[in-house]
Amino acid sequence: MDVIFYGALGLIAAGALGMACAILRRWLRIRSAWNSGLTAEGRCLRVITRTHGGRDGPVHSSLQHVYEFTTHDGRVIRFEEQHGPATVLEGDRVTVHYTDGPRVVATAHEPRPFALGGGAVMVLGILAAVVLGCAGIALMYHRMSSSFVAW
């Protein structure tokens, strides 16, 4: 029984740590594109609306845009970006911020470092609380179960 309890807490903590890594990776990628100083005019090729939920719950939708732009050295780059603005439609021109190098990181989101950083810090704080909560529960359970001596 102890193995199942500790395993469940470990899986919850591992999931929270994985989510934290993904958020940090995304935040650093977008920040590097904004801080690179490289911009290009891009074009929205497609807008995809993703919906999820339904049945007995609410339906949520999000927009995914497909952009294409040409780097300063002439390479044509196509990328997809989630949670884009509803005001950008197919064929619209946008400013793309990108990094140079073999792996181009690009975003069409307007630079809002404090909004992105603040949101990331808030979510990371919640995930840290989840991990610490799992550790605290495991520690309390260990102390309580070790205080009972089997006769």
| Poorly predicted parts | none
Shape: elongated
The count of domains is: 1
What is the residue-mean pLDDT, rounded to a whole number? 90
Secondary-structure element pattern, one letter each: HEEEEEH
Question: Distance N terminus to C terminus?
Answer: 19 Å
Strand order in the largest sheet: 3-2-1-4-5
Helix content: 40-55%
Tally of contiguous helical segments: 2
Using only CA atoms, what is the Rg? 22 Å
Largest sheet: 5 strands, antiparallel
Strand percentage, roughly?
25-35%
Based on DSSP secondary structure assignment, what is the total number of beta strands?
5
Structural class: alpha+beta
Short structural summary:
This protein is an alpha+beta fold. The chain is built from 2 helices and 5 strands, in the order αβββββα. It has one domain.
Overview of this protein structure:
The chain is of the alpha+beta class. The protein has one domain (2-147). 46% of the residues lie in helices and 28% in strands. β1 and β2 (59-70) form a beta hairpin. α1 runs antiparallel to α2 (113-147). This is DUF3592 domain-containing protein. Keywords: Membrane, Transmembrane, Transmembrane helix. It comes from Streptomyces thermospinosisporus. The chain crosses the membrane at residues 6-24, 120-141.
